[in-house]
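Example record

One chain of 338 residues, shown exactly as stored in the release files.
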Amino acid sequence: MKKIIPLIAFAWAIPLFSISQEKIADSTRLLSEVTVTVFGQYRKLSQAGVPVKIIDLNNADLNNKSSLVNSFNTIAGVRMEERSPGSYRINIRGSSLRSPFGVRNVKVYWNDVPVTDPGGNTYFNQFAWNNFSSMEIFKGPASSLYGAGTGGLILMNNLDRWQPGVSLDYVTGSYNLQNVFASARFGNGDQKNQFTYAHNQTDGYRDQSAMRRDNFSWLSQLKISEKQELSATVLFTDLEYETPGALTLAEFNANPKAARPAAGAFPSAAAAKATIYQKNILAGFTNRYEISSSLQNTTTLYGAFSQIRNPTIRNYERRNEPSYGGRTTFTWKNKQWK
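Predicted structure tokens for this chain:
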């Protein structure tokens, strides 16, 4: 009987030992290759040699299509601030220390078209969620190819992942949030077209912080020959957003939703109807020509116009800002330099 018990225990343990040795299915998932175009060279992200971060539909905050603040703030060394809905400030490694308002000292390009005006200011709030499919953020001075600026570089692309089709999104939420995104893409491999429309609207958390933005864009890319490609880009934005102003600690503790109250001879933000009315139009044409198997030229001509009206507590501002320019680059490729 004493010999039988160990045999029974051994036989009972055999199935457990076999189960523990079963092979587990491999859960490894291969990621798609990421290509960056910083400095005009198409390279793998691991071979870029510069600090680059990619924002696309795979890692962006898909639940918040009203703003890119959350997506930007997940990047080390990058901070995006939103003082009121529709008003942004981008800080890349301390670049905004001397720019209390707006986006300055950061170069922004949209489909190879410069968005930053000659004065160094960028109206980043003219873009909507569906105006890009990928975004490359370069953390460092990029004056060698993209103009003077030590604050970094943002390259926005909208046709790099083009596929024919139609899409329509609607988002709603608290504080009368209403977002509509529509896009239509048609054509083929030699001719690509894309139309987008976006409507963003919210009453805001604070008093005098409502925002409305309507955005239209058209992009077209035509392959003329095996060596030449022509693209056109047009963007129009009609934006208005209210500015509630700052509060003291006592005013904040009393009512954190309140706008700036009246002080002395100056009216409150609500009484002054402090609002920024902004209209932007941007148009550009880009021609890419492969001179040889090693040499390529990219030339862009563009024009932009911005109209700003801003009634504030102390004054009424109105300005028109037309700008135009051109840009040409030559890229030399040598397989022996890999």
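Notes: Residues 35-337 form a domain with the Ferric Hydroxamate Uptake Protein; Chain A, domain 1 fold (CATH 2.170.130.10).
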